[in-house]
Amino acid sequence: KEIKLWGGRFEESVTDAVEKFSESISFDKVLYKQDIMGSRAHATMLAHQGLMTSSDRDSILLGLDEIEKSIEAGKFVWRTDREDVHMNIEAALTDLIGEPAKKLHTARSRNDQVVTDLRLWCRDAIDNILACIKSLQLERDAGRLIDCRSRLNFCPLGACALAGTGLPIDRFMTSDALGFTAPLRNSIDAVSDRDFVLEILSANSITAVHLSRLGEEWVLWASEEFGFLTPSDAVSTGSSIMPQKKNPDPMELVRGKSARVVGDLMTLLILCKGLPQAYNRDLQEDKEPLFDSVNTIRGMLEVSTEFAQNITFNQERIQKALPSGFLDATTLADYLVNKGVPFRTAHDIVGRSVALGLSANKQLQELTLVELKSINSVFEEDVYEFLGVQNSVKKFCSYGSTGSQCVAEQLNFWVSKLEIK
Ligand code: ARG
């Protein structure tokens, strides 16, 4: 067995069970790009500060290039006995270039590496999710991620496990090189903090719940009973036993997958709940929920967007459903308010008009003026301008209301804000 990078004080190697249990390479290898970026910045800074020669730096940079290429070509061998992405890359670099590689870990620990990699990964993940949100457009969901992005963009590198270092490193230089706003101010906080993961998982959970609500509504409207919308075949699936079925399964799955995204947040909240300061190995468990949440929300957004683009609204079915349910009752109350009737009294008069309609099997607009006057003499011929759904919706004109004019204004606002052509 190869001696571990941390093997100096150990007399025995770990058992197979411990090795298998503790590894993270099976899932953290996706961080290879960020890990290599971090190492490039770190080596460049160490050379600038006189902590390695420029020729050591150059062979490190060349070695890292080669490793990156071999990973991307699918040729790199990821080793479980090298535990995680950080030690796999460092050990491979040592295999490749020898002595200079041993200087790379000067004034650096895996604790700062892992959280630096994770912040860089999250930055890209947020940009990707934002693009997906824009195709479907959920404004507040984007805002939460943008907030989170600005708070996470600080650099932990140089925390050196937890305490900082006596070596003359320049944390501002690495922070700049990696596009961070600044180095984190406190070395213990730098390796402890996973707020940014919690924030992304929270923002994703809220987005997931929105998509789930949308999914619920679309599934309901697509049902035989409602029939308000028909998804195209491209976004529907069939039944293995009922040949007639065409199901809006993608949206049922969007509703279902929201459970995972919320679960990922719960996992991380509970993971962090009992942790003391600084890095604890428990934190290795932050990655799978993070990756799962980001991948799942991206899929949910993509499929919801495609679904939205593949829906036909069945105007006729919708029109047919509108007259039932006395949707114009509130407009009728407003009519009475306009005539000077106090709202509570108007509410009661309209309630009795609805009761009359129910017993006569008539909609409100089908009640005669005589029938209406039998309830209250304030009704006049002009009442019919307020009755029926078509008339009723025209009356809504308060800011942000559902009247056609107001809806058109709202649409115009978003079309220009989102630069939709
Ligand atoms: N694989 C670890 C992780 O993903 C790296 C940190 C190792 N630090 C430690 N103290 N064992 O979190």
TrEMBL record:
Keywords recorded for this protein, A-Z: Amino-acid biosynthesis, Arginine biosynthesis, Lyase
Known pathway: Amino-acid biosynthesis; L-arginine biosynthesis; L-arginine from L-ornithine and carbamoyl phosphate: step 3/3
GO molecular function annotations of the record: argininosuccinate lyase activity
Catalytic reaction equation(s): 2-(N(omega)-L-arginino)succinate = fumarate + L-arginine
Enzyme class of the recorded protein, top EC level: lyase
InterPro entries reported in the protein's UniProt record: Arg_succ_lyase_C, Argininosuccinate_lyase, Fumarase/histidase_N, Fumarate_lyase_CS, Fumarate_lyase_fam, Fumarate_lyase_N, L-Aspartase-like
Keyword Transferase annotated: no
Entry keyword annotation includes Lyase: yes
Biological process according to GO: L-arginine biosynthetic process via ornithine
Residue intervals of the Fumarate lyase N-terminal domain: 8-136, 137-263
Pfam families per the UniProt record, alphabetical: ASL_C2, Lyase_1
EC number: 4.3.2.1
PANTHER family recorded: ARGININOSUCCINATE LYASE
Record-linked HAMAP family: Arg_succ_lyase
Protein name: argininosuccinate lyase
